[in-house]
User: What shape does this take?
Amino acid sequence: MQTISPAPEIWATRLSQVATYIGNTPLARLEKVQPNPRVKILAKLEWQQMGASVKARPAFNILKEALLSGALAPGQRLLDASSGNTGIAYGAIGAALGIPVSLCLPENASSERKINLRALGVEIIYTSPFELTDGAQQKAKEMYAQAPHRYFYADQYANVHNWQAHYFGTAEEIFAQTQGQITHFVAGLGTTGTFTGTSRRLRELNPNIRRIALHPDTPLHGLEGWKHLETALVPKFYDPALAHEHREVDTARAYALIRQVARAEGWLLSPSSAANLAGALEVAQTLDEGLVVTVFPDSADKYSEVMKKLFA
Assistant: This one.
């Protein structure tokens, strides 16, 4: 029996319903860890949207464009590689839209990520924990090459709709929420979509905004979702020239901040959120005054092993 594809206007209606749960996240001020009143640090609380992470933005934008363009055909599964958060976002949005999802995931992803993916009905294909997301990408490409009729391969590391989600969303929100007063934007690099899209649009809105890219300091870091670009596959749309500065973040420093922020500010941060804050604090220490904005990609909810080490 032939499957009939919904008309574009039907997809548009369904997508508009899901879109109400994507983006428009609040900015929180970190005051106690940054005592200088002339330098403000604000962070986007990205876990306050569907899928509970910043990855809701690119996942939704990729799915939206694939559905409206017809690139994702009736009966096909969405296929991609992820360290977990994009996969969870795909799963949540896919479930809401009736789109099945297959995900290549490093075997060492946190247990919470695996449970959430299974709960959302995602088909998980585990890959080597030693190859991280590079190995997951390779596996996804092999699966697509073997059965292109079965899958729409989203390829978040090369899909322009990844960074464009931040260009049209995250950057505009930050600029409006700060009334255009932002002086510095600081973010870590994984797929690089957040930094690329947000920085590209902020540069257009005000070229004087300083843009600082953060990197893990070693290949064997503990910042899930981040890439050590010197030794990893570099996402195709990454543009290092967008950054005024490149800074390294130590995993131990990020973990220490998880404890400090929990007890001083009341936020339970993930390692990547704490690493972004570490970079923002470094930048703030060099300033006499300014407004530094960063992103908290997700909360501590999916990192029980880290939290046990810190607080058990």
